[in-house]
Fold this protein.
Amino acid sequence: MAKTLGQLETLCFAYVQMRNLRAVRTDDLTDALRITLKQARELLSRMARRGLIAQVRRGLYLVPARLPLGGKWSPDEALILNTLMEDQQGRYQVCGPNAFRRYGFDEQVPACAYVYNNRLSGRRAVGTVALTLIKVADSRLGDTEQVRTPEGLTMVYSSRARTLVDAVYDWSRFGSLPRAYDWIRQDLKADRTRAANLVKVTVRYGNQGTVRRIGALLERLGAAESLLRSLRRALKPSTCPIPWVPVFPKRGTVNRRWGVVLNDQE
């Protein structure tokens, strides 16, 4: 059975559906419903608490295309992220565990959506969707693919190659090393990712540690010398070796070309 709506709630839904709106701001309702700003705030807050709509931030709410029947309504990730980034005039790309699962590297369903973006940082929840927002520089956004959702929305994901690079770059956040090395090996072997593209993405979006580790991996895999030289040119001089697997003890043979301690006991 549908939840019983009060007069103002009914008018609010009638207004947003007439205008075909999926997002509504507090001040949108003052003239439309002939209520004060305080009444509009209280109305939208009350509707959000009842699960009829979902709060994106204070003063901005998402509304369903149709009245929710029974239980609480929650928007999907695409609608949330597109609305949030449009509101912030920012850009985003879904990354980390969500991208790992999309490309078949990991079958685990993430508890939240990990999102690189150039505006917001921290955790938040919109409806039943949990977000981990990771603010990065504009230069670290890119190499993406757009995915069309069943609802007709567009969602931006890191590309396959970019996801592999980030699994090495952001290993401490995503808990992705040493698994990422196996993902890269398998993708290169199956020709799902080209070594040249992986090198290009590594040079553009990786840091020094990422370049070193991927360089050492590609050298182990017998990559073309021209590709290894491209990576090597991206490195700055350093005398401090880094571990191949950061979570293992830093003991093993040192690959001096890349400054990497091969501590994986292979």
